[in-house]
Amino acid sequence: MGTAGPAGEVMSREEADRALERLDAEHEAVESSLLALQDHAGRRLLEGARLTGTTAHRWARAETAITSLWNGFEAYSRTLERARELRARRRWPSRDDLAELTRLLRGTLTVSGGALAGSPGASLTQSPKLAEELTLSRLVERMNEWYAQALDVVAAADSVWSALPARIDLLAAELGRVRSLAHSVGVRPGEHPAADDLERTTTELAALREEVVADPLAFWTPTSGSGAPGGGRPDTTRYDNAARTLEDVRREIDAVLAVRQDAETRLMTLRDVLSRADRTLAEARAARGEVLAKIAAWDVPAVSGPPTALQEQLATAAEHRRYARWHRLSPLLESLEERAEEELERARAELSAVTAPLAVRAELRGRLDAYKAKVAQNGLAEDRVLIERYDAARRMLWSAPCDLRAAEEAVLRYQRAAQEALAQRQREARHTAGGAMNMGAE
User: Fold this and answer.
1) Dihedral sign computed on CA atoms, order 380, 385, 387, 391
2) In the prediction, which pLDDT does 279 show?
3) Which of 227, 72, 212 is nearest to 152 (CA)?
4) pLDDT by residue (tens digit) across 207-236?
5) Minimal CA–CA distance to 54: which of 229, 211, 232, 208?
6) By C-alpha distance, which of 253, 59, 27 is closest to 155?
7) CA angle 278, 283, 285 (to 5 degrees)
8) What residues does each domain of the chain span?
9) Of the residues 17, 71, 124, 256, which has the maximum number of CB atoms within 10 A of its CB?
10) Residue 348, H or E segment
11) Contact 298, 292 (CB under 8 A)
12) Looking at the whole model, is its pTM more than 0.70?
């Protein structure tokens, strides 16, 4: 440290005391910050780590800032200590004492270039100055800048190291459990996509942990608009992607385990559904023969064959279960369950389409008999026209093969005749009832 330069007007005793009080407070604050930085866990980790990339570059500058910070603090302390000693000599300092105090407290210090290297804003290729003249106030500002620069690196690295490696280790442990479970159910690399995902995630986690330990600041996202040291958050994108992949694999393994537990029940259900579909199709084929024999002039659709392809896949599923190929059985069962239900619905639809003419004939027979009963209830059973039309419709409906279109016309003719006869009977009844009322009135 060189001698202090000109300090301007000499301070009064009160001004000197106030300046000393302020500088003492600043000295205490800087000292506390320095000791906190010295004891910071992140700083100790950075000093002992083999750093690479962004972190190695920024920590080299931060170490220079820390060195500058300590050198500046020592120069500041020596000057402040000399000023304290000078002020303590006399209760009422002399003019010369006040002049010296003014020079110490307001003057400049010649600080060596080593204490200024790495100062904020300096070019990376710019050589540090051999010396610089700084007042105590300006030196405090510069020390605050160095402190912020160092703390930003230390706090960010510590945040990443506190957040990511432990979480990566926990995820790796869970990955090991899932891998063991996957192996037990036959999910192996090269045979199942989930196992391949596990292998890729294992490699990714190992690489991620190595990178985080060596270059934590590569995984740090500063907070936009924040100027506070260490403002930001760890970038967990790669970790989150690995965690999501592992969760997807775990769900896949759980599905395979569920298949292993209820595979036999599901296979039995599938056999039952396909058997019902086969019986329904057989019933449809038999019904089609009956319809062709009993119904004339009607387009009867053909009936498809049994679901042989599904039966073959069902046999394959049973083989997968027998040899504990659960990872292959799982997707096959899901596909079979969906297609078996579709096959049963298709068989039922074909049966309905084939038997539709018989349903039409049954409906016509029921309608014919219902009108005959209604006619009889109204005393028209002996009506010749109704008897003739009923007999004609009945012969058509009970003949084989039955011409449904002609039979339907016959039923409609009988229905219209019955409706007309019933309407006539009701008019006659009202007329008779009206005549009786008139006679009673007379």
Assistant:
1) negative
2) 92
3) 227
4) 999 999 999 999 999 876 555 666 789 999
5) 211
6) 59
7) 95
8) 13-158, 160-222+232-261, 268-355, 360-441
9) 256
10) helix 326-377
11) no
12) no
